[in-house]
Amino acid sequence: MLSQQENDYLCRVGPGTPLGDLMRHYWLPVMFPYEMESDGAPLRTRLLGEDLIAWRNTDGSVGVMQNACPHRGASMFFGRNEENGLRCVYHGWKFDAEGTCVDMPNEPAESNFKHKIRATAYPYVEQGGVGWVYMGAERPLPPLPGLEFMRTNEDQRFLWKRVQTCNWVQAMEGDIDQSHNSFLHTFLKPEWDNSPRSRITRIRAMDRSPHFEVADTDYGVCIAARRDAEPDTYYTRISQFLMPFHTMTGPYGEDPTRGWRAWVPIDDVNTLVIGATFHPLRALTDRERGGGVNRMEKDAYRVRGNVFYVEPQDRAPATTQAFGAWYPIDSVENDLRIDRHIQKTLTYSGIPVFWAQDGGTQLTMGKINDRTKEHLGTTDLAIIAARRRLVKAARALQESGATPPGVHNPEWYDVRAAAVELPRNVSWYEATEEYRRVIVGVNQAGV
User: Is the pLDDT of residue 146 over 80?
Assistant: First the structure.
């Protein structure tokens, strides 16, 4: 368990907090380019506890600046997006993408006041179908992380996002916790066939207490969850935690799709979950887009979406608030739409939407989980390791100004998760080295 002070240290991300300062050294994946049109409506956003406005200029470039006009604090959401700048409708002050005040029409012509005014603005770039924002002070700008999906063609990837209304740490921790797969997502009476995925389901049912091992890496933590497979083999699923909030989990089958997720703090109590399903060598099939490959069906009952993606019919009506198009219907207020009959007769959880099985249970921990009351076991080793890595990096930054891991090393992010069946007498870390590498022209199989 953590002390209250340690828990606050880990979870708080506003300006001046240790983890907030750490996060501001990294590029944040935030939006999709199609969400903003040239000279179109500004887009509210919120990152690391700061209210921001994004807009696409006449020339196609994007500005991201503080929501409050530096004049008297009116919201720039109502601003006029025109001629490569955003103009406050209150008194007409206009700002460019760098935050420079380029026009101040309510001041006398001889006034030079506009040259003394500058709004807080943040750099923005688009790559891999995602808009990235950098909120740090480093110049020149650090490189983007070299994540594999960012080099794929548009037809090779499916991008998605959702808002999860709890702290980013407890949301992220669910993705590196493999032990829950023997419980939360299961059917009470599974029907197994000869498919690879069915075999893994059987292994998880037979060995419900995986053995965890971790390895600290340059980029974060490499995590192995090992289960008994055959008398002389283990099924080992390799997850990756990459600083400060990226995760990957092992794939399935002979020609697997792969995944990337980022757990971006909106503020202390809300998280933007953004990610990609992608294939490194080919276009995705219709079934592989939109989470279809992960749907579970039995009789007339279907678990909708997947653990990350929320299907359109399961999203709340869109609003203009920050990330207002990406809130799910399921919440603690509607009990995640649990079906108690299904829970007794068909599925372990009775929760019909796949993401809500994971994310919803995390919501029930509270906005920020009180870790002074938790009791961690051996299967929580990955969570412990990730927490330690974050705190270690934040303290090094705070105490000695050490640049956080990976900020200047985009190549460190060019890794894969893996799922393999290994002889029991080999080292998992050594035996999976080639499976964890991104090899051009190769898509290593999962189990």
Answer: yes
